[in-house]
Structure formats: structure tokens, C-alpha cells
Design a protein that fits this description.
By secondary structure, this protein is of the alpha+beta class. Helix content is 18%, strand content 32%.
Length: 145
Amino acid sequence: MNESRYWVIVASRNHIMLGVQAGVAQSNHGKAAPLKRMRVGDGFLCYSPKHKFEGNEKLQAFTAIGQVSGETVYQFDMGGGFVPYRRDVKYMDCIITPIQPLIPHLTFIENKKSWGYMFRFGFFEIPKNDFDLIASQMLTEKIHA
């Protein structure tokens, strides 16, 4: 049996939240290739360098966490000629988690001074131990009153 893999998707928080609401993931401005690398059961984190795609206000935090649930990568017409590829995913309840305190402990960030380099790719794989560390900071239990 194939073991799960773990990924980071980079996008502004406002775009991530649109995906959370729809139960889908998009990556690299709607490209299919990154989503095709994922398999059902893989875990992923969403990292947001800024709050809004259109803005300049920095966020530098992990803003969503989920697991791939859909077998297929498909296109979706968002209007205005934008027809990105998507994949169905299941998001978990989480808290926004700043990256700065985690940098010294993340093995996928080799150069701690130029830590943002990896995120320029928009989509990349990370080791399970890094995923688990970030997830431990993000995941919360819902309290029902």
C-alpha cells in the first residue's frame, strides 16, 4: 500500500478561504500538474504569505489544513475566462498559525535566513514530521456548548 504524502499549497488567505468554503483545492493559478501529483488520503497545508491576493498586507502563516478526498482533477469555470483545475478535499477546523516560531524546527527549510524561498514554488512536498509539527499547532477541537 502506498503511504500518504504531504504537501504545501501557497496562496493568499482570501483565496484559501474560497477553497475552504467550496471544499476544493487549486494550486499555482489553476494549473493541473500539482493537483495530479496528489493522491486520495494525502495531507496538505495551505500557507498564505499575505491576507489578500490584491493587497500587500503580510500574513506569513499556515491558514488551512486538509486531506485529499477526490479521485479526479477537474476544471471549473469561475467566470471571466478563468477555468482553473480543482481537486475535492476535506478541510479540518484549525487556527491560523504563524510560520516564524516554527522555522527553526522545520527540516524542509534548509536556509533559515532565506526561509521564504521554498514558498515561491507555490506547491511542494514536505516530510511527514514537518507536516505533523505544523498540524499539531493548527488543529483544534471544537467545543460544543
